[in-house]
Amino acid sequence: MNPFSRFCLIVLSIFCLLFLNSAVWSSDKEAPHWSYEGAMGPEHWGDLFPECKGKSQSPIDIHSPFTGDADALAVNYKPSPLKIINNGHSIQINYAPGSSMTIHEKKYELVQFHFHKPSEEEINGQAKAMVIHLVHKSEDGKLAVIGVLVNEGKANEAIQTLWSNLPKEEGKESSVTSVTINVSNLLPSDLSYYHYVGSLTTPPCTEGVDFFILKNPIEMSKAQIAAFPYAKNARPVQPLNGRKIEESKTK
Questions:
Q1: What gap in Å lies between CA 57 and CA 196, rounded to an integer?
Q2: Which residues pair with 126 in a beta bridge?
């Protein structure tokens, strides 16, 4: 190869590398972001994430008439080391393997739980102070969420443990080796629920998620609710579009 050809090959290689790097950078810059207000708020999610325009979206307003007589919900939650993260949209606790819920003889492993303020689900048109979403996943990849509604009331010891260990940095998981939590302490004694099929309540709004919203709220104090670092991080209720809401068997 003569010197001129070698020079042309080197120039072409440099150009290709610069083009590829530019393409990767542009792709990263153009990745859609979202928020709970403004131009990236919930009313615009469908423009960024097509499935957010789906017909089976969450959350919903839960009201009668109810159908069926759904099976009882069984949970088997164990203690977990505290792994907590402020992900920029909520406070999320990543749970250790080995805890699960069972419904219709199908088992779902608890993966994480997180908080919304006010509650995303409404009961007869009324939101609660907050809601805790316990996210579970089955072996075949199906998602199931238990929703624990929160009323303002007395202080909650389990919540205080979490709030006392809130991460100082956003986006970085904090492992608190000296603290163990048990999500059972965030549940009411009666696990009666409303059930419907919906979606993730945050983008990409993936559908096919089973929701089990517990009828009986727990309590957090006014100060604990105020200490949650997000003033509002709840998606508005979505149309039911003919979906049925089941009510669990009574005790």
A1: 10
A2: 123
The DSSP bridge partners found for residue 81 are 180
47 Cβ contact list (under 8 Å, min separation 6) = none
The DSSP H or E segment spanning 174 is strand 174-181
Q: Would you place residue 159 in the very low, low, confident or very high pLDDT band (cuts 50, 70, 90)?
A: very high
Give me the domains of the chain, ranges plus CATH numbers: 54-248 (3.10.200.10)
Q: pLDDT tens digits, residue range 175-198?
A: 998 999 999 999 999 999 999 999
**For residues 176 and 82, is the Cβ–Cβ distance under 8 A?**
yes
| Exposure of 4 in the CB half-sphere (CA atoms within 13 A) | 0
CA dihedral 94, 99, 102, 108 (to 10 degrees): 50
SS3 65: coil
Give the H/E segment covering residue 23.
helix 3-29
